[in-house]
Amino acid sequence: MRQRCGHVFLLLFIAAGTVTAQSDSVLRGIVRDPSGAVVRGAEIQVLAPQQRFVGAARTDEQGRFAIPVGQPGSYMVELRAAGFGDVRTAIKFPLPDGRSLELTTGSPSIHEEVSVTASVDQIEPTTRLTQPVNVIDERDLQMRAKSVVAQVANEEVGLHLQRTSPVMAGVFVRGLTGNKVNVFVDGVRYSTGAQRGGVSTFLDLIDPALLESVEVLRGPNSAQYGSDALGGSLQFLSRVPSIGIENGHKFGGLLSAAGDTGDRSAGGHFTGSYASSRVGVLFGGAARRIGDLRTGGGIDSHAAVTRFLGVPSNVLMPAHLPDTGFTQYGGQASVNWLPGKDAHVIASYRHGRQDDGKRYDQLLGGDGNLIADLRDLTLDLFYARYERVSAGWFDHVTLTGSINSQREERVNQGGNGNPRASINHEPERTTVFGVQAAVRKQLSPRQSLVLGGDFYPEHIAAPSIGVNPTTGLSTVRRGRVPDGATYRAGGVFAQDSVELVPSKVQLVANLRVNGASYRARASASPIVNGQPLWPDDELTAIGWAFRAGLNAVVSNDWNVTANVSRGFRAPHITDLGTLGLTGSGFEVAAPDVAGLGGTVGSTADGTAVSLGQPVEQVRPETSLTYEGGLHFRRAAWRSNLSIFVNEIHDNIAKQSLILPAGAVGKSLGGTPITAQSPNRVVFVAAATNAVLVRANFDNARITGVEHTFEWRPSPRWTTGTTFTYLYAKDTRTGLPPNIEGGTPAPEGYVRANYFAPSGRWWSGTYVHVAAAQGRLSTLDLDDRRTGAGRSRTSIRNFFLNG
Length: 802
Prior knowledge:
By secondary structure, the protein is mostly beta strands.
């Protein structure tokens, strides 16, 4: 396989066309309205990849403009004209035959989708991409993300939203979520080694009001964006300060407010901006209060009172579910600066915070516990990027440095409502320093090469104490992960993009080597009863990933795409060192059962039997995906069909822990075992389900079909449908695999939107249709919200307050 990948890159290099000398490095064009009349005073801005400013101009009396561009490559052209919708289009410069660019002002319902993240250092329309990408623009953000940013997944093909509690959410990409989908903000890695396998604590700290767009790359993208992208990659893009005002200065601002009756929420946001010829500044803030959520009919079918007592929730609970409200606020400030003709600097700081959040699924929404707080959820993200053109042999060089700090404190009291159970405090702060570098060379008008690398060292502070609610005494305990653990991730990559046939056949190939290392030191542990709370532990993982994609234009209306890609995910801190109560129940890590004779169970519930596989530290998991697509576009009609198969190898799954008979009373990292079944599955007081341990457990295959259809009968109306079908199985047993979060059921949307001619208001409606999911894994069936299982013991504990 390594030799074949090398041959692919060699063929790409020799496929390049000859370099054509350009005597004119100026982009010239004209702007017209839909009737064909020229538009005077329209603002044109040209951006390069990474949102780098290239030039700006206003149209003259004849509607014409001219902007020096310089280097050949792909660019984004943004058009703003009073009374018309904004227009964004991707171009390859120089234009064929030296012709001028003709732009037409748009209506709010008609716009071209352009991706800036699908290919590293490339800007392309989605119709020319070699892989499927969801482009969610600012208008869609406003329509969907009313409470949290994860709601942008609604109405999108290939994506699903999961919220186990109001403040925590995950976005499924092709049936995978959590640490199998990586997240970036403005090209800076947002995912950390503390990311769990299910929903994310910190995803929703990215405030949707401060974003310009979101792009979701569907399918493995580890060759471009590093570890974790087995299902895909989430790319959040902030607003960029305007720049390039020819004469004088320009100030701007925006103030908005919104409310919702479903959760009795209210909030708003503001932005302010300043622009001159060389400096742009943008700042903004947002705040909202989300009240308790009212479900359909005011009934929660999976509430603890229904799960354990068989009583409808509206008998013992209010229609607005208790402990589902929270407060969120944040802000952002960005500076765009042109220090010289060939240099560009952008710096940005983002802060986000959530207060009053709770794990509803661990309270009356599932387990019936008394305390499950999420306190002080805080994000601080800063990055600075320097870009330079004409750097030696390369056309473009980018250097980025970043600091990403994510903090939370979990406060839990398990035991199905036992008021005497220990109240455990688990504050965590993950701090990441990131460095990225990339260089680009336009080898010819039809071929470009990008080389780069990144490195993200992480440190996690995770002290923990337990408080006895009866005596008030506190004791030092083992936190969810080892305090002081370190994690380092990075890699080097190459991308080659070539037009095999001009304007007809595009081929993109990526190759990347990924590495990660983890270390926990017993010397950093407090000493309790003469022993450290965790042992020394470390792991180093190295792997590689590739992607090759083809886009071929068959006719003016049809094009086909094909992709093959290999994903890579190094085990996270949470895979290697988790101990305690999580979204799936109570988990232990391999070092915490060392010497106990533990083996991996056949399922993730109390019926598991030993398979004889010893508990040991997990290894990296990989994926191999094949997919094909058929795409149609004509005037007001669009349709896209994608079919894929994703093979996940050495799947890291959660399985029941099996210990030799007589385990009751023994300790799992300081937590005593309270029960053991005849098949030797063990239990602790903090959770109703079996103790879980992670293992590389078999291989999984996900097969999917994705389809979209859109019809625009007029400039003011859009209608469309989306449909997503997923089928997941364990390749050995044929049963649903134990992939955390489960596999979303087949679903689709039918929608219609109307946009007023003034552009000041819009109205929309949609119908969401989903099938029942009959293929649930044992992990799903034992989940507090999905299967909502119960036993005589858990019913008795809940009724008697633990």
